[in-house]
Amino acid sequence: MKKVWIEPGCISCGLCVFLAPEIFDITDSAYVKLDAPVAVCSQQIKQASQDCPVSVIKYLE
Ligand code: SF4
After folding, report:
1. Is 14 exposed, middle or buried (0-12, 13-18, 19+ CB in 10 A)?
2. Which domains does the chain have, with CATH numbers?
3. Gap between the Cα atoms of 54 and 61, Å rounded
4. Which tens digits make up the pLDDT trace of 10-51?
């Protein structure tokens, strides 16, 4: 995986942080951490993208 990002519309449920804590963090809304190990966590990222209730987690393989 090359890149992951979060589009507008996050409802701050925290699920992505639970599923992929090395990649995502949350303040007012979720964001991708600086230097997130995207390449080695692709499975968790895909799971978070699939399970996000508002489908705002996007990625580029
Ligand atoms: S799973 Fe989706 S809605 Fe929930 S915190 Fe993450 S990006 Fe936001």
Report:
1. exposed
2. 3-60 (3.30.70.20)
3. 21
4. 999 999 999 999 999 999 999 999 999 999 999 999 999 999
The answer to whether the predicted template modeling score (pTM) of the entire model surpasses 0.70 is yes
Residues sharing a CB contact under 8 Å with residue 26, sequence separation 6 or more, in sequence order: 12, 14, 16, 17
Residue 4 Cα to ligand 1 midpoint, Å, equals 13
Is 56 a pocket residue for ligand 1 (Cβ < 6 Å)?
yes
Which protein residue's CA is at the shortest distance from atom 7 of ligand 1?
10
Q: Please indicate whether residue 23, judged by its CB atom, sits closer than 6 Å to ligand 1.
A: no
